[in-house]
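Quick start: read one record
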Amino acid sequence: MRNENGQRCPQCNAVLPATGAPNVPPIPQLTPAQIQLLDFVNALDAPDMVRALKLIHDLALYHSDGPLDDPEKVALYWMKGLWECLEQMNPSDVNDKNQDG
């Protein structure tokens, strides 16, 4: 709770600005492409997408006869990062489905 003169909070004794809340940066608006991506990648489909990304990763890494140069290695690294983010969206479902399959 803020006191009248805006100097200190009576409960936690924190220094408060006299003008009220600190400046909050504006929230950026999402582009239509970002909205479409968020609609496509939702938590309900995360387990299936994680399995698909891991399959593509493993096929490229372990079952390909071609050499992997730096661009391919970076792409596989980003793919791994993507499936780890998807796993965090709904970790219980991803882990349950991975154990079933």
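Helices lie at 32-40, 46-62, 70-89, 91-100.
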